[in-house]
Amino acid sequence: MLRAVSLGRAAGLAISLLLAVPVAAQQPDSLRPYSVGNPLGIPATATPGGEFEAISSNVKVFGAIFSAESCSYDAERGVIVVPNRGVPQNVRANDAWVSFINHDGSVHTARWIGVQSAAERSRLAPALVLNEPFGSDIARGMLYVADRDGGTRADEPSVAVIRRFDLRTGVPAGETRVEGAPWLNDIEVGDDGAVYATQTGDFGDNPDPATWRVWKIAPDGTASVFVQGAPLRQPNGVAIDPQGNVVVANMGNTEVLTFSPAGRLVKTENAAQAGSDGLVIMSDGTKYLSSVTLGGVSRIRPGTPAELIARNIPSAASMCYDAGANQLVIPMNPNNGLAFVPLQ
Question: CA-CA distance, 37 to 43, in Å (whole number)?
Fold first, then answer.
């Protein structure tokens, strides 16, 4: 969900980030090896051959999240991976970063990808670009994010970009531009490497249904429209069910739509509330949906009506399943936090 940030708030954030830049980052404009941030401890920025000491075990830190829209679970590390959007493109480009969060909400790594300032990122080898990520997914050893380029001025077009990062090292591993989409919301990666992405499109009294799309980006980078128009209604969450079908949660009504791999509608279900954003599908086919507008979490067990299992979570965005703790993790994007819903 896009939001505005006041210039005063943005300016304050810019000053705080500038003051927080370590001395090692203020070097001449020469290329340096790509690096990611350390877990909480000293120093915050990794240096070749440098010593690192973790924060002492009696210290608990909560936070690190700023305007997060989605999350994913890294089973190998046992952490929740959260892209932070930072300030919008028209305030400052390349401001986003990625955090690691523990099961209890404490911080594992405040800034993993994106520990460098926006100005320093172009001097990395390879350079880092992470502007304003929305949806994310982990698959095939990669972190995928739905980012965008452009839109830094009112007269500059915005174009959606799927960016990939090596999950082991954090190094950029390629990107795919989706020229027909100004931005993408949620994403899901299939077993074959294809990326399914929602374009939520128009809102308002007279929206254009042609702007409601689900895209399919093939492993070779070819982008095509998978579904367009009705029955989509501001599509938001997207996931793949155990049968390999593509499931889409409408934000504009309560419908949860299941499409075959060929794009044919095979089932329509309804969440307990409209405004769906997050969508998680379990191995038994149970679906969980979070409403970004009404704040509830719906559970749809196979063959049964939806039931609310949590209520009144402000701006409940694109959630993920934390398998290590059997809980749903829900970014509350303008509230700069995460909600945790244990599952029974």
Answer: 9
